[in-house]
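Progress note, sequence design subtask.
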């Protein structure tokens, strides 16, 4: 019985932080939002580089505020 119990991982080792739990979803949503923004910019006549530069500028402005 002792060897069987020794293989059981304590419940504390299964706990994840909120960041770990949400990070994958956050990154997927961020990527989806960027794809949609670039697509909208392309439909409006912008180049992909102009769209990406504008997104980068928005992020930089957001960080400063």
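Output:
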């Amino acid at each position: 019985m002792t060897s069987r119990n020794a293989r059981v991982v304590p419940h504390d080792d299964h706990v994840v932080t909120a960041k770990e739990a949400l990070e994958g979803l956050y990154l997927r949503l961020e990527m989806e939002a960027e794809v949609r923004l670039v697509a909208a910019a392309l439909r409006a006549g912008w180049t992909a580089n102009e769209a990406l530069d504008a997104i980068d500028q928005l992020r930089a402005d957001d960080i400063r505020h």
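DSSP finds three helices and no strands in the chain. Work on this subtask will continue into the next period as scheduled.
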